[in-house]
Amino acid sequence: MTDLHWLPTLPDWRQRLKNLPADPATAWEKAVGLANARLNFVLTNALDETVRRIFPQQPANLPTKTVRLAVLGSATTTHLLPAIRVAGLRRGIWIDTYENDYGQYLQDLTDPGSALHAFQPTAILISLDAYHLTSGITAAMAQDDADAALAEMQDRLHQVWAAAREAFGCPILQQTVLGLHRPILGNNEHRLAGSRAWFAARLNQAMRGMAAEQGIDLLPIDDRAAMDGVAKWHDAALWHRSKQEIAPTIAPLYGDLVGRWVAALQGRSYKCLVLDLDNTLWGGVIGDDGLEGIVLGQGSPLGEAYTAFQDYARELSRRGVILAVCSKNDEANALEPFDKHPDMVLKRGDIACFVANWQNKADNIRAIAQALNIGIDSLVFIDDNPFERDLVRQELPMVAVPEVSDDPVFYPVAIADAGYFEALAITEEDRERTAQYQGNKAREALKASVTDLPAYLRGLEMTLISKRFDRIGLQRIVQLINKSNQFNLTTRRYTEAEVAAVMTDPAAFGLQLRLTDRFGDNGVIAIIIGRLRPDGDLYIDTWLMSCRVLGRQVEATTLNLICQEAARMGARRLVGEYIPSKKNGMVKDHYARLGFATKETGNDGGSVSVLDLASFIPAEIFIHVVEG
Amino acid sequence: MATEAEVYAGLTEIFHDVFMRDDIVLAPELTAKQVQGWDSFKQIEIIMASEEKWGIKFNTRELDALRCVGDLAKMVATKTS
């Protein structure tokens, strides 16, 4: 995958680009937002051009350091510059760029009167193409000649680096050699001393050692191309046409690789990975499926994929990335797998801050940053649920939220390809960091909610499709009735025949509720069974809901629907019962929250509540309701 | 095969993105000379954006033979058939 797949696609991106204000004071933040979308090279160029028009110079008062980046190249690099600048923008960094006249990088470096010297770079990228670096190498060469040529090439690189350092004393990024040469000998190309492909490979190896000695950073496009395929990076036809070694189509990725280096130099890499739990660290919902029911570890491909993701996260933490958890769960349920599941790779000790509750995730993420005492702009949040991702992106645009599918195989890919945690070196402190954070802090009380949730919900375009029980839905209804544990007021389990009986009972109704929003169809997310009693009360026999849609006003909307049904049947009051179980503590106050009066409370914590239909005022809701 | 209308609609979006102008109206006889800023780099952008959009690939001879928008549209239509 060579596009910026971890960034979200913004459907109205073009319109938002057009609407960028001409006023630099307000345009910057919006432009940063546009840069954080999945852009191809054409849109990247369009954004760059627009931003340069609004800002003839860098905007004032940026919290980041402006970078003057000289790109010294042996071939055409013009098409890479917009993507590099946009990659800076993506991170809130203004990058001014310079490029040498075609092929003139050495002259530029060594001539104090050159335009490069006038530019006074604060960072230098050396981009030498593979044709240039292997010129003179030929299959006719003997081993000694090839070795001498390699030594000479290393000398030349040393000289370029020394000249750059002497003149400007700034950080240097050296691009490695793209393996674009076709073999001359074949599989055992390394036996041909004068092979250009083998020479490039040897030079790449030598560069790693030299760079370490000299304190030069590398831009390892050879490694990237090994993963992506050289053909994604290099198009020979384009080389012949315009001397572009690096294809314009991959410029956004190339630019981003440079951008993350620039950010790392300023200490602006991300520091902490915040993990969702259900369907992110394991398959399934721990509160409903239980320890035995979640998918994790050996025995299924999916379970192994979750294990592999946990392993990737643990590797990150071992080199200094802080791990945190942010999950909608009862805390005891959320902690259980960490303590008891044999296939959990991550243990409690790996998590520096563990937040599991039913509040919205934007507020919880704020609290995590506060608890860990790190900037909220140093957090990356991974969640399989598009609703949660979008909420956090809207409320906390400074938090990185990788776009992922529901396939855990790609979670490490998204995090790795995004380069959030780019680091230039590794220190002892890095290795000990997670332990420090763990020691300093466990769980602080969460601050009061500050997110403007109603405004967000309004924009979600939610539709609740209400449908009576029917034959088509029967299987799913039975499944939900027998599986849901957490948001389940009475935990009554029914067989298919019992559910079917509700369909024909004139004194009962069954509702299956489906929720759609602009992310798509959430499927059937709630089940209601109501029974009219001889005394004229409508008893809510079953009310269950998927925790996925918690906090989205589905509860209040559902109550409105129940009231409608009750009124239709001639009921005067609703009677709701809470029967406590081991897992449904979260709905203990469900009816009280909805305005029911509690009538009886049992010793076991159970309760019966009533709502008078005559005095009931439906809550204001943002969900559009349709009959299915 | 993409219809002529589909090809022109797709190319129009590409041209609007590449030149950042919504007022470009594509016609078969339109050439680089008539559009401000249509240089060899923009030409490559247009070609590569077309390749990406339709999942096709032009060869060197085909690219050399391109004279006007009509040539490009015809080639896209042929390659998507």
What does this structure look like?
The complex is a heterodimer of chains A (628) and B (81). By secondary structure, chain A is of the alpha/beta class. Chain A is built from 25 helices and 17 strands. The radius of gyration of chain A is 30 Å and the shape is elongated. Chain B is mainly alpha-helical and 81 residues long. Classes of the chains: A alpha/beta (628), B mainly alpha (81).
Helix content of chain A: 40-55%
State the secondary-structure class of chain A.
alpha/beta
Q: Structural class per helix/strand content of chain B?
A: mainly alpha
- As residue ranges, the low-confidence spans of chain A are 439-450
Radius of gyration of chain B: 12 Å
In short:
The complex is a heterodimer of chains A (628) and B (81). In chain A, 41% of the residues lie in helices and 16% in strands.
How is this fold's topology laid out?
The complex is a heterodimer of chains A (628) and B (81).
Chain A: H1 13-18, H2 24-35, H3 41-54, E1 67-73, H4 81-90, E2 95-99, H5 105-110, H6 115-119, E3 123-127, H7 130-133, H8 143-168, E4 172-175, H9 196-214, E5 217-219, H10 221-228, H11 230-233, H12 236-242, H13 251-265, E6 272-275, H14 286-293, H15 301-318, E7 322-328, H16 331-340, E8 353-357, H17 361-372, E9 379-382, H18 386-395, H19 411-418, H20 428-440, H21 453-458, E10 463-468, H22 474-483, H23 496-504, E11 508-517, E12 520-532, E13 537-545, H24 554-568, E14 573-578, H25 590-593, E15 597-601, E16 607-612, E17 624-627
Parallel strand pairs in A: 1-2, 1-3, 3-4, 4-5, 6-7, 6-9, 7-8, 10-17, 13-14
Antiparallel strand pairs in A: 10-11, 11-12, 12-13, 14-16, 15-16
Helix pairs in contact in A: 2-3, 2-4, 3-4, 4-13, 8-9, 14-16
Chain B: H1 4-19, H2 40-54, H3 60-64, H4 69-79
Helix pairs in contact in B: 1-2, 1-4
